[in-house]
Amino acid sequence: MRGYRADTAFDGDRELPGGALVLVDDGVIVGVEPAAAAPPDGCEVQYLPGTTLLPGLIDAHTHLCGDNTMRALDQLPELGPDQLDTIVTASMHQQLAVGVTAVRDLGDHQWTVVERHRGRPDGLTVVASGPPITCVQGHCANMGGEAAGIDQLRAAVRERAERGADLVKIMTSGGIMTAGTDILAPQFTVDELRAVVNEAHHHGLAVAAHAHALTAVEQCVDAGVDTIEHCSCMTAQGLFTPPGLAARMAAAGIAACPTLGHDFSATGGEQPPHIAAAMERVGATPERRAKQVAELYAGGVTLISGADSGINPSKHHGLLPTAVVELVVDCGVPATVGLASATGVAADECGLGGRTGRLHKGLDADLLLVYGDPLRDITAIHRPHTVVSRGRVVVTAD
Questions:
Q1: Burial of residue 41 (number of CB atoms within 10 Å: 0-12, 13-18, 19+)
Q2: pLDDT > 90? residue 224
Q3: How far, in Å, CA of 27 to CA of 33, rounded?
């Protein structure tokens, strides 16, 4: 048995006044005590004043097959299994290095993540969708998930269930990373989306829907998807969240993953040119995007954090802490809500609530100790000291 003590702690839902002592045995949390509690006899305790103890973070939107380059997604059909395995393994290490201990992979190629990397006995916990379903020549069609018409869409869902995917991902609008698709246009009808949702729910699978266009977001709500990825509500006149739409999402229990988090240091401090051009076309400035996400929160929508990591240099793996900081600092969300969006709430929405995401007895011992207090200064989440994955220390600053 081993203990981790901190004077400040966040359990995935709320602050634990006075901190906590978390006891770990055989990869599982076996106790959560007040920080002042005495550990069991013979239990070694790690304690560093000035740190905060959190659950390991969850990146709710990643692409482990993406290698962070400008051609990360375009190159996928050119890669063999060994190359894909190498990229996925590197992506996992990059995530763990910043305190991410679980991910929801929403864009697989050749079933690489689902079939070879999802069930590893240690390290990153992964739930995976397999190749995203898209229309013919639609967004991310090169990942192998094209389908046309209700019959093919239902068959695509069944294939994912049969191959062991944890959920279904569908591209309901065009996207920035696929040339020739229209980010302002839906890719399916509402009836087609309902067929996907009904088939997926019949097989016990949630549906995560990529949606940029406001019309596509509205279709997703009508169809009853489980989470909306990006949910940027784009129109030709800019980005905005209609109040009634946010209220409908909240009432239906549909969460949004706004995929914040950017690092332009690798691109000269600016967005890649093709992304900047697409954003300018729809008036999607960083300030307007932050305001639109704030509108989702004000409307009662549950928010989870995912960085859309791996797809290009500005959205590299390990960017989730930045997404949480942007949610709090730029969008005005309280620090407790921002932290929960990447821990307890993310676990629930990603189907991991019974495994990780909280400092609760019986869950996997996925822990993060950071220097400072992210409850008062959210940027402290950028300063990991110790990362524990299923009871094993994988990162330490010592």
A1: exposed
A2: yes
A3: 17
Homologous superfamily of 2-55+357-396: Urease, subunit C, domain 1 (2.30.40.10)
Are the CB atoms for 57 and 327 separated by under 8 Å? Answer: no
What is the distance between the alpha carbons of residues 20 and 35, in angstroms, rounded to a whole number?
4
Backbone angles phi, psi at 89, to 5 degrees: -60, -45
Say yes or no: do domains 2-55+357-396 and 57-349 share a fold: no
Give the bridge partners for 29, in sequence order.
24
CATH superfamily for 57-349 is Metal-dependent hydrolases (3.20.20.140)
**Please, which residues have CB within 8 angstroms of residue 244's CB and are 6 or more apart in sequence?**
none
- Domain range annotation of the chain: 2-55+357-396, 57-349
Burial class (CB in 10 A: 0-12, 13-18, 19+), 30: middle
Residue whose tokens read 């019974």: 354
Residue range 172-219, pLDDT digits in tens: 998 876 777 788 999 999 999 999 999 999 999 999 999 999 999 999
Token pair recorded at residue 191: 């009836």
Q: What is the pTM of this model?
A: 0.96
When pLDDT is averaged across residues 244-258 and rounded to a whole number, the result is 97
